[in-house]
Amino acid sequence: MRFKFKVLLVVGLLLLMNACGIMDPKNKGKGLNLFPISQDKQLGLQVVNEISTNRNEYPLLDEKKYSEVYNYLYKIRNTLLTSGNVDYKDDFEWKLFIIHDDKTLNAFCTPGGYIYVYTGLMKFLDSEDQLAGVLAHEIGHADMRHSTRQMTQMFGVQLLAEVLLGNNLDLIKQVSASLVGLKFSRNHETEADERSVLYLCKTPYKADGAAGFFEKLQKQSEGGKTPEFLSTHPNPENRIEHFHNLRVTMGCQGKESFQTDYKNIVAKLPK
């Protein structure tokens, strides 16, 4: 009975602290999340370790051999991070990895900010602003802490409180395992879309750059083939229009697409 009361007390305090922005001020207004920032980082590292030991499924490009491509991606990343709107810019790693898989049109960002981009995606896109828009979308998922917010809902506050109290240490393994195949809700996808425009808004890029990507995906899916990205990212109606509208309502002035630079970099990827 004492343990149950202790758990409920912790849950109540966590809910109050989260609502007031005391537990993590940067999480205020982003929804209930009982995981500390350190847990986002730990979960992200676990995914990184899993991928690094599974080179058959995730053949990573060597950072030294393809330094020019990596530097190009880091330049885009830095532009996004210094936009002034990434809340956890200094808290997460934001490290980049390129997966050599030309058949997969995808990108993802783990909790804690580890960003993975498939060569198939880079070869599919037409310009730098489109890639920047996709990267900004994925950074938005990590910055909004969607994975641990979703896990808070999946596992319930009492079980998570037990973890925080140190009384159910095995549960964290179960939580980590649930990251595999995790799909975000439509609401989280909308939030990431909005973050994409927000991050690009003060840059030279067209802030609705991600819209060009979804327009190409839409045309491809009309041909009867569903791209990998759409299998893990819902495609709600009017999503493309939402990107365009946000650019206008936010007053974004950027117009650059940098197509020539982008094509030169894509040409340096392995065939």
Mean pLDDT: 82
Rg over alpha carbons: 19 Å
Q: In one word, what is the shape?
A: globular
Question: Helix-strand pattern, N to C?
Answer: HHHEEEHHHHHHHHHH
Number of helices: 13
How would a textbook summarize the main sheet? 3 strands, mixed
Number of beta strands: 3
Q: Kindly name the structural category.
A: mainly alpha
The proportion of residues forming helix, as a percent range, comes to 55-70%
- Cross-sheet strand order for the largest sheet: 1-3-2
The share of residues in extended strands comes to under 5%
What does this structure look like?
By secondary structure, the chain is mainly α. 56% of the residues lie in helices and 5% in strands. It has 13 helices and 3 strands, in the order H-H-H-E-E-E-H-H-H-H-H-H-H-H-H-H. It has a 3-stranded mixed sheet, with helices on both faces. Helix 5 (128-143) crosses helix 10, helix 9 runs parallel beside helix 12 (239-249) and helix 10 (209-222) packs antiparallel against helix 12. The longest helix has 19 residues, at 2-20.
Question: Briefly, what is this?
Answer:
The protein is mainly alpha-helical and 271 residues long. 56% of the residues lie in helices and 5% in strands.
Sequence-ordered SSE layout with sheet pairings:
Blueprint: H1 2-20, H2 37-52, H3 67-81, E1 95-99, E2 107-109, E3 114-118, H4 119-124, H5 128-143, H6 146-155, H7 157-165, H8 171-177, H9 186-201, H10 209-222, H11 228-232, H12 239-249, H13 259-266
Parallel strand pairs: 1-3
Antiparallel strand pairs: 2-3
Helix pairs in contact: 1-7, 5-9, 5-10, 9-12, 10-12
